[in-house]
Amino acid sequence: MFTPAITGTGVYTPENIITNAELVVAFNAYADRMNAENAEAIAAGEMEPMQHSSEEFIVKASGIENRYVMDKTGVLDPGIMYPSLRQRSDDEPGIMTEMAVDACRKALAQAGRSAGDVDLVICAASNHERAYPAIAIEIQNVLGIDGFGFDMNVACSSATFGIQAAADMVRSGSVRAALVVNPEICSGHLEWRDRDCHFIFGDVATATLIERIEDAQGPHFEIISTSCATAFSNNIRNNNGFLRRSRPDGVADRRDMQFMQNGRKVFKEVLPMVSKHISEHMESEGVSSNDLKRLWLHQANKTMNDFIGKKVLGREPEAEEQPNILQDYANTSSAGSIIAFSKHSDDLDEGDVGLICSFGAGYSVGSVIVKRHR
Questions:
Q1: Which of 59, 107, 203, 240 has most Cβ atoms within 10 angstroms of its Cβ?
Q2: By three-state DSSP, how is residue 190 classified?
Q3: Model confidence over 113-127: pLDDT tens digits?
Q4: Predicted pLDDT at 227
Q5: Which of the following is catalytic: 123, 156, 228, 357?
Q6: Where are the domains of the chain?
């Protein structure tokens, strides 16, 4: 048996930023248009007028201030409200592969590794570009990696589930090194015309290199333990799959073909599930709240993270103990906890213990306990 370690991470960040102010202007213009078109029905009491959004509402509801997207022109056009992404030919790398390769190369560079050192690619994400061939195999091909690859989807928990799968294979000896990559184009699955959720998501890609600890070329994080759990729920759902029916403008006919969430139930049911999962995982490894130097949580909502941090630590977490990137990146689904880990881990000292956790639709929750080595 071998000991797996995280030896490198990489983050691909799109060039386009949408601020809350820009988003509110576009949404309110759309709302005004819809209210004008349905003025008679609204006056007759047959339908409710669309409410305006506001920057204050968005920050209070989520803690989000900006988000990165692959395209902002379509999203901010009140007549479209959807990313306008070029349809690529089958001879071109897909857009997810393009994002993923950038993140993978950064992870490999940080670890002092090359594509030739990698045996496995796992593309773990919520929103896949196509059914097949697997995105992971295309990433493997572009990078020039021998070995194998496969896709997996556990919604927002995909990164931690992917890390567990890769770590288990490294531990067993079936692979020496694996890339777990999370390219998320959440903007394509978000209903930008819905006031309750139009601000939630952003686009990004992250990559994590996992290899045998004795092969590590520099500072790294030993993977002490992983733990995953699922419990079925319809409270976070997206029916957008290969049976999708679309209008000529590319917008799904049915509202449930995009991201949908019963926010109140999610808060009520997910928070205790995640808090209990983390606490039990720590207890099983003999890790106390005083031992835990850092929590890298899924970046969905600041209030949710504050609640979980307080339950796990038994007190209000300090900013450096539970770093947030939500305000800059918004919810990036499976990639959020890895962005937080990548950007807020270099300062930990030898022997410091931290925990990566992601959670979301399924319901699903995955956690990874790591120890710093320099």
A1: 203
A2: coil
A3: 999 999 999 999 998
A4: 98
A5: 156
A6: 222-373
